[in-house]
Amino acid sequence: MTSYLVRRVAGALVILMIISAITFYLFYAVPRDPARAFCGKICQPETLTLIRHNLGMDEPLFVQYWHWLVGIFAGRQFVQFGDCPAPCLGYSFATQEPVFSAIVDRFPVTLSLTLGASVVILAFGILTGMIAAWKVGQPLDKIASSSSVIGASLQIYFVGPLLAFYLVDTLQLIPRPSYVPITENPLGWFTHLMLPWVVLSIIFTANYTRMTRSQMVEQLAEDYVRTARAKGMSSRSVFFRFAWRGAMIPILTIFGVDLATLLGGAIITEQTFSLHGIGELAVRAVQNTDLPMLLGVTIVGAAAIVLLNIAVDMLYAFIDPRVRLS
């Protein structure tokens, strides 16, 4: 287990290094001068030259990337801002605040949105799929399968405002979506993020319903399941003790991929419900041509996706004893 984890972390670092190099080059090789966004609308040529020098943008691109990379692990010195402690992702062109501090302030919103929605999606998707597999061929199976297809056809920017109008404004069943730190008010954190979680679960649950149903039906036809039934084990015990475990491996694999989709889709979700997370931060960075902020959001998002996928892989051995991490 330990050697496997070390190899995965080492591989993740290599992947993040490649992503950072490609992203850095694409962002800083744009035809538009990034320093002009920092200078403002009225900018003299000599001021622009001074800004380029202060930000190190008058150096070759590979030298700029090396300084940026070293800053993540050892910090960095800026002529204009002074010392930037590690992990240093530079300073925003628009607000002149440290990029890493801005992301840290916003990341709990996106993380709460993603992880909370993941729990709801897995719970509803797996439960619905198991019910459909238990009642395969019956009306309940057909209803669950049909409703999942309808949910997958909807979009966040359509379902979100519609449910907000009925559940928040008209019926007043839940509060308007916002972020309340879980450390301050756990109940408020839950209730204020309930609507985004429900909307995301409606859209993403379909894949898990279909996958759970098909995997459960396949597992129930395996030889070891028939052997367990021949030994007198009840259908309920066979269903939950054997078939369920075997069906979870492919579902976890899809879940690892969908985590990236949820994090990437945070931009749409946060804009729909006016949540101030890193998705909104990325949108503002694009609008302001704030390349340090946009680069920082991209790298932090990539790191979160890689680490979450490693965690999902580690769950394989706990769910199915036949899986060995080596």
Automatic annotation (TrEMBL):
PANTHER family the UniProt entry points to: DIPEPTIDE TRANSPORT SYSTEM PERMEASE PROTEIN DPPB-RELATED
Keyword 4Fe-4S: no
GO cellular component, one term: plasma membrane
Family: Belongs to the binding-protein-dependent transport system permease family.
Cell location: Cell membrane
Protein's UniProt name: ABC transporter permease
One GO BP annotation of this record: transmembrane transport
Species assigned in the record: Microbispora bryophytorum
Domain of life: Bacteria
Residue ranges annotated for the ABC transmembrane type-1 domain, each copy included: 107-316
Keywords, alphabetical: Cell membrane, Membrane, Transmembrane, Transmembrane helix, Transport
Transmembrane segments: 9-28, 115-137, 149-167, 187-206, 242-268, 293-319
Record-linked CDD domains: TM_PBP2
